[in-house]
Amino acid sequence: MLKAKSDKARGFYWKAGTVVLLAAICSACVSGTLPPSSATDVTAGSMQQYKLGAGDKLRVITFGHEDLSAEFLVSDSGVIAFPLVGQVKAAGLTLDQFQQNLAGQLKSGGYVVNPNVSAEVIEYRPFYILGEVQKPGSYPYQAGLTAVSAIATAGGLTYRANQRKIFVRRAGTATELEIAVTAATPIFPGDTVRIGERIF
User: Fold this and answer.
1) Judgement on whether residues 136 and 82 belong to the same structural domain of the protein
2) Residue 132 and residue 113 share a domain
3) Alpha carbons 167 and 150: distance in angstroms, whole number
4) 10 Å Cβ neighbour count for 164?
């Protein structure tokens, strides 16, 4: 009789311990401590390495040349129309690369002897959110946007939504990656976020 009770007690504590362990693992996955497959690929990088794209609005300053300082919109073809030089490639370049490219064209064209060019993004292209949110669509990008704030911008989740993971396709890529939803998961300009359904 005592042995049977002891066996039952051991079985209870083993099951309880297993539940606690699984809960801890799930919590770690959601918090980002144990990122799911490809999560590091999605969250890698920063806005310093952000690559420009169609819809980004730039402020370009050519020091000492006010006539060559203005705001420009990156066109659907990925270029800006710059005075004297004409079309200058922007899409797919970081700000540093764009500045070097523009300065090189100004110098090689003989327009400025020693060009000193500075550029900044003053308005980013929108991001997109689809699936199980209240108001799917495109929204203006705000610096520091995360998965949680992107969902809030779209009116929050529906009752069918999977609250633990989302799917993100970075701008300019064809691959959709699955990542955990955390307050630190970054969303970048041009990203497409898809919220799937949870399994009932």
Assistant:
1) no
2) no
3) 13
4) 14
Q: Which of 123, 145, 167 is the last residue of a domain?
A: 123
CA distances from 188 to 15, 16, 45, 162, 165 (A): 42, 41, 10, 21, 17
pLDDT of 168 over the 90 cut: yes
Beta strands 79-82 and 86-89 are: antiparallel
Q: What is the pTM of this model?
A: 0.70
Mean pLDDT, all residues of the chain:
80
- Whether residue 147 lies inside any domain: the answer is yes
Q: Based on the number of CB atoms within 10 Å of its own CB, is 198 exposed (0-12), middle (13-18) or buried (19 or more)?
A: middle
- CATH number, domain of 99, equals 3.30.1950.10
Q: Residue 32: pLDDT band by 50, 70, 90 thresholds?
A: very low
* DSSP H or E segment with residue 63: none
Same-domain status, 110 and 95: yes
Q: Work out the average pLDDT over 54-67.
A: 96
Number of other CB atoms surrounding residue 7 within 10 Å: 10
Q: Is residue 192 part of a domain?
A: yes
Of 43, 29, 67, 13, nearest in space to 162 by CA: 29
Which residue range is the domain that position 80 belongs to? 57-123
